[in-house]
Amino acid sequence: MTIHPSAMLAIALMAVVTYACRAGGYWLMGRVTMSPRVEIGLSYLPGAVLVSLVAPAMAEEGIPGVCAVAVTAIAMRKTNNLLIAMVTGIGTVWLVRQIV
Amino acid sequence: MGIGVAVYGLVFGLLARQMGLSFAENLLMNLVVFAGAAQTASLDSWSYPLPILSIVATTLLINLRLILLGAAARPWLHHLPGRKVYPMLHVMADEGWAVAMNARRRGERDIGFFFGANLFVAVCWLPSIVVGHLVGGGVGDPAAVGLDFAFTTIFAATLFSGYRTRFDLLPWGAAGGAALLAWWLLPGTWYVLVGGITGFAVGFTFGKPALAPGPMIDGAP
Q: How many domains does chain B divide into?
């Protein structure tokens, strides 16, 4: 039940930036209108961050990683269920590791 | 929607324990941050000494989309005084926001519906974190069963659930290429920042309009 000081700091800062985003957009719209270009750019940001998390992890893992990400993607498109996609992805990485 | 949220919450609670978060840390993070995708990304690099700067930068990048959610909700919510709106904005999350905005398109005008839908997500999320944390202790060596790859599968699943048009592949590809390059060249996890900004820049320059930001995933706050 302890909280590490640096974990406390990290969580507090995460909370601050997250709330700033939640409240910031609402606040900002009362003052200026967001340029459509910025809005479009921002809509691609979450995807870009996720790709940036996936690509290096996949490269580090090698063939099992590539297979697992492909299977996860297909499972997600077919079922739109996180749990199913995750379990099949993890299962694939485990299976391919045994073979390679 | 509730089930999707609870399942993701369960998975997060479990993984957070695996990464060494104490029960108090886990609960605190979910109470004050309350952003599943960003929290999951932070867990990925949660080892001491914590790379706080890069964790916070990644959190900011993933959550910048919340600016759009808040901005889009303004025409509905600004009838209430700020002292009521601002505290409630803390629980605004993709899923509840999407449900509420859909309802508004169909004629819903009650502001209570907006906050009710978002609060519902929080009410499903928090207990599932607790359960996930408790269950998490029973799992053995994560790598032996491929669980070390769990984050990557969550990120990939979230990514592809947000796939809208073929054009998405351009900013995604650019982001991935830049991230890989930065991963080879730079220390730490700065590749996330590099890739994210590259994707934004490509989307900003070549992006097509009229694509509203959808929820990141079915069930993620």
A: 1
